[in-house]
Amino acid sequence: MSSSRTPTLTALSFASLPFFFFVFFSSSSSFVSHCDGVSQQTISTVCSQTQNDELCASLLNSDPRTASADLPLLSLVSIELTQKQAGRNRETVARLRDNATGDPALRKGYANCASLYGKVEADLRRAHELSEAKEYEEVIKEGPGYSPAYDCLNGVEFTPALGEITRDMLIALEMFASVASYVAQQIRLGLI
Prior knowledge:
Elements: H1 2-36, H2 40-47, H3 53-61, H4 71-99, H5 104-132, H6 136-142, H7 147-155, H8 160-188
Helix pairs in contact: 2-3, 3-8, 4-5, 4-8, 5-6, 5-7, 6-8, 7-8
């Protein structure tokens, strides 16, 4: 009688192997995808906290490192993308300042804008240092706010070019703030 049970147990054990492999590979695939980088779902979650989630996701995905980034690297990527936008804005308003030779008030307004964007760049350098040190709560506190972009826009005569770079800066700042908040939250929850 015991010999008749043994084949049944063996058959049952072999019959269980497909289930075991399914469970093992299903659970390990989410681990592997985590190691391969943040998912598009994570990017969607992060960007849903901004006013334009499509532009936010497009901006993050414009950096090739995003595809393989873990959350700490995504934090650095978001800061660097925002730094690039702040640098472009500072250079643009400096050119506008240099070209506004006949209007001292306009020249002064653009000079103020260049200074404001210089401060944004400095704040982002500090945020980058803090992110490298994995001090994500501090990244949120030390990062730039939105007011320099608005102060620049409101401090000079409006032009379409100025409106466009301000919009781009605000999108980058929102993306930066959303990524920083998300990463800090994941740390608080013990998920990374």
